[in-house]
Amino acid sequence: MGHQVARPASYFGQPVPGLTPELFAPGVVSTDAIELNGVFAPDLAEFFFARLIGGIQTIHHSVLVDGTWSAPRPLMLFPGQSQAVADDMTVSPNGRELYFLGNHPHAHDAGVRSRDIWRSQRINGAWSTAEVLPSPISTEANEVYPVIVGDGSLYFTSNRPGGLGGNSLYRAQRLADGSFAKPALVAPPVNGEFGIGDVYVSPDEGYMVLSSSRPPSIGGSDLFVSFRRPNGGWTEPAHLGNTINTEQTDYCPMVTPDGRFLFFSRRQGASWSEATAGDVYWVDAKILEQFRR
Q: Which domain holds residue 174?
C-alpha cells in the first residue's frame, strides 16, 4: 500500500505540504479568480482569505462544523454591509477580534479616503459591524497589514510622515483599557531605505516574516525572515531564497496559530491594476529555521 498523506480537517482537509510551497485548497480557495491572504482563527475552525470581486478585494470566510468546511462566502463587515476594499486580516490570539485593512469612504470625518485598520468583534458567535481604529492608529496616511501579537499589541505598516524608506513597520503597545499607545517605529535593520511591505510577527515576537523589494529581491516583492536578538533588536532580514520567492510578487505572509505552516500569496502583476492572477500558497514553517543566525 502507498503512503497516505494525512488530511486534517483543521487545514481545510488538504494534504499538508513539506518544504516546497503548494497551492492551498485549489478550486476552493485558490481558483481562477485573484486571491490573497490565508488566515486561520486560533482554534483552526475558521478560515479567512480575500478574493478580487468586481475589482475590489473582499474578505471571504469559511467555518468548520462537524468536520466539514462551509463554502467560502463574502464577509461584509463595513457599516450597512457596504462593499469596499477589505483584506489583510488577522485574528487576535484570544479569537475575539478580527482586524483588517479597509479602504472605506466614511472612515475620516474630513472625507479623506485612505487605507485604515478596522476592527470587528465576535459577539454571540458572529462578527460585528467593524469600526475604524481611531488615531493614533488610523490616520490620513495609509495603515495596512495589521498583526496582533500575544500581549494584544499591534504591528502594522504605514507611509505616515517620519518613517524610513516610504512604508515602514510600527508597533503599538496594547494598554490596560484596550486602547493602543502611540505607534513606535521599529528600528533598523527591519525598516530601511527600501521600505517594507506586509509583515507577520509571531505571537511571542520572536521572529517576523516580511515582504520587501530590498536586495537581493528577485521579484516585485520577496519574503524575508528576521529573528529577535537577545538584546531586543532584530537580525538583518534573510531572503527566503527561490524556493519561496519568484519573479512575481510574493507577499501576505502569515503563520498558522499552531506555528506549523507559513501561508503567503503570489500575484502576477506589479500592481493591482496590472494583476492577472493570484493565489494562496502554504509551506511547512520549518523552512524558516534554516535562516536563523
A: 23-270
Examine residue 5 and state whether it is found in any structural domain, yes or no.
Answer: no
Closest CA to 9 of 55, 49, 58, 46: 46
Total-model pTM:
0.93
CATH number for position 260: 2.120.10.30
In sequence order, the 6+-apart residues with CB closer than 8 A to the CB of 258 are 44
- Asked whether residue 32 is assigned to any structural domain, the reply reads yes
Give alpha helix (H) positions in the chain. Answer: 241-244
Measured from the Cβ of residue 95, the count of other Cβ atoms closer than 10 Å reads: 14
Reported as a single tens digit per residue, the pLDDT across 166-220 is: 899 999 999 999 999 999 999 999 999 888 999 999 999 999 999 999 999 998 8
Span 114-131, pLDDT tens digits: 799 999 999 999 999 999
242: Cα separation from own chain's centroid: 21
Domains identified in the chain, total number: 1
Residues paired with 249 in a beta bridge:
221, 267
| Cα 118-89-122 angle, rounded to 5 deg | 65
Phi, psi of 37 (to 5 degrees): 65, 155
